[in-house]
Specification:
homodimer; 260 residues; 6 strands
Chain lengths: 260, 260
Amino acid sequence: MLNEIVDINHKKVSDKIKDFIRKKVEEASANGVVIGLSGGLDSTVTCYLAKEAIGPEKVLALIMPNSNLKDSLEDAKDAEMIAKDLRISYKKIDIAPKLEEILKDLPKEKVAAGNLSARLRMSLLYYYANLSNRLVIGTGDKSEFLIGYFTKYGDGGADFLPIADLYKLQVRELAKYLSIPQKIIQKSSSPRLWDEHEAEGEIGLKYEEIDQILYCMIEKNMNTKEIKSKLNLDERRIDKVISMVEKSEHKRRIPEICIL
Amino acid sequence: MLNEIVDINHKKVSDKIKDFIRKKVEEASANGVVIGLSGGLDSTVTCYLAKEAIGPEKVLALIMPNSNLKDSLEDAKDAEMIAKDLRISYKKIDIAPKLEEILKDLPKEKVAAGNLSARLRMSLLYYYANLSNRLVIGTGDKSEFLIGYFTKYGDGGADFLPIADLYKLQVRELAKYLSIPQKIIQKSSSPRLWDEHEAEGEIGLKYEEIDQILYCMIEKNMNTKEIKSKLNLDERRIDKVISMVEKSEHKRRIPEICIL
């Protein structure tokens, strides 16, 4: 199953994504894109493709570490390296003092504050998009999208999603094809919303497991029973992923309207 | 045409909206809703309906004036009056110092900063929603929704939209039925994103005009030629509204994914 998932035609896939990026920017008569570059895998892959699609001068990266989190600054250095390698413009904005001011006099809570930082980053991306008539390019992958592992109107808030039909394992493969630095490819996935925040740890499953379950569910259209007999995985893990997909449906839709 | 638009069955419409609010809160097993109460018509009507639907103890209002805008503080006083009348909990949060900190060292631009304040308000609503397991109830009406007169992922960012199938003129009628204070009903519509910001002034059309054009376009399914012959309005105004609907389509959809 793993082999089947990662067996993608890299050239075909990256050409299609680049065409898509070009088309979206043209359709909107935009001057280019703004991207939130975190130093992680997804945003780096998206940035490489955007640069190849529309040229480095049309890609503006915002690097938005939270200086109160130690891993975040380390990531920001990687992001800066990527931006320099690609010769794109970038701005570094520490969100820590902004978050502190927003949270002043409010009750403190870790997860709520984490989601707030994702929404602040989205707001800054749109601020720069507004200033220069650019689109905000989203960087989420299909695995995160399906299990709802993103902040609604935070990192989920963008104008278009070029790599959201690629599972995390496929993004890793594409990254190798694009010659993205090994350090980025090997880094463990993290939204960095708080200290030592790590995706697989928080979810409680490896992406190898998540992607196999999702692949059976979505691409093979299997029901729970079929997935359980196909995959050699703890049944509770399979139930968990299926439940995450179902519970996060509202994040993949526009808000429901009361039709009169 | 105006008579036809405002001829709604108030009791039936409000009952249906209240059922919808109740259903959404129950489905999500949420403890209630958080609403951004501006002191304007739409959020007041939504707040009245929410209170009647789920009871005052399940409605939390955030009143979020920008103290740098003089009209905003006046509105906040009205919002406070509404919250007290309805006996719902509310918190007043001045967004001015938060906006200033976010904008520190960034290039200044009025419209971008206006959109930023809408996104900051959304972020604060979700912060409180996260803290207390509530849903964010959206307050946009159908006229704004169709012409795209809202900030993407700002006031447009909510979990469900109870009055988004009611045109502005219909919301005004419903407000009378709900015995909402005259002052709120008569107030000119405004997103209050900057000083002296006024909806009809910014759009360049009265809601009486906008709603008639939209009603012909959406409810009567008329084409541009038919609308022009039906309505006794300047053709350029009709073209403008139609163009606003078309150009804002991306705001009413989830971001497009590159399908591979």
